[in-house]
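[09:14] KT: can someone run the structure on this one? pasting the chain below
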Amino acid sequence: MKIKTIQAFPLAYPEPHYKNIQRYITLARVESEDGLVGWGECISQFREATLATKIIIEQGLAPLLIGEEARDVERAWHKMMAHIWWYGPEGIAAFAVSAVDMALWDLKGKALGLPVCQLLGGKLRDKVAAMASFIFDMEDLEWTLNEFRWLREQGYQIVKAGWGMRPEAVFGQNRARDLEVVRRVREVIGDDLELVVDTPGARNLWDVPTAIQRFQDLAPYRLRWIEQPLLPRDLAGHARLRAAVSTPIGTGEDEWDMESYRRLIQSGGVDVVQIDPGRCHGITGSREIIRLIEAENLQYSLHTWSSALNSAASVHLLAISPQGISMDLKPHESPMQHELVSDPWVQKDGYLSVRATPGLGVHVREEIVQKYLFG
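[09:31] RB: done, structure tokens below
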């Protein structure tokens, strides 16, 4: 079954979880000579990155793979990785590899009549935990609390919020305000739900002593983990923080590949490793990272806050390992989760079912791809 075409589709859409701010992803469409189609995605996030990803997919990776056996996914992955060695193991080309690799797994599953998790070795569970994830409004506490009330009513078992609706008002900037928010949230959701707080570590709001203080301040509210407390590249700082506090540390969404994840894991500064298959070289790259996590007896969570395709990949990647905890899920309807596919993901009692549908398990509506296409 040979690869016939590989196309890229840069999409722009309003994100209702972020006051309809414009966000971007890139889809990859791989078609075989016998007419089967696989879809993949990367979280390219910015307009220019999304357009650049399209160029790399169509002008760099497509000529490399057209005519190759479509079911030899790992062979294709190694060819792509060898091709981008100079300009992209970390960066825009990693987005391109992620989208194409995901599409190839989807295509292979459809060709063989098997869900991706079975192609990866078999599922260990029939459902995976969906962690409802949204953005704090640090200037409207009642709105934020009402969101958490609603999430509890919807049956979620793990809930997460972070950052803020404006750069000038994000979690982590004001100690008293941060503590009041978390205290009130815990009151609203009760003791039985697990709570995660996401801090804008990339903005370097906390140094290590400040982070230690904040972790100690927040300890009474029993957070499942605190996400990105420090600059992602400050591995030594994360290790010092982890040695001084009891609340687990989650980080990793800014990493790219095996080597960067290896450095993170070996630094001793992380408890819950975040993986995004739409960024870290697709499903193939994510599976390799999961093996590293398993070897160190750590846990992982899937950072997936983009489309239903990335959600699908995350479901399969959670289903294959006992070390997986949860995956992010947008709790409200959104274009890339509910319009893009005809069979969107729906949580029940805080879980998503691992579908037996061949491939990724979702059906892309190509008319919706055209609706949000730009550039």
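[09:33] KT: thanks! DSSP finds 13 helices and twelve strands in the chain.
[09:34] RB: yep, looked fine to me
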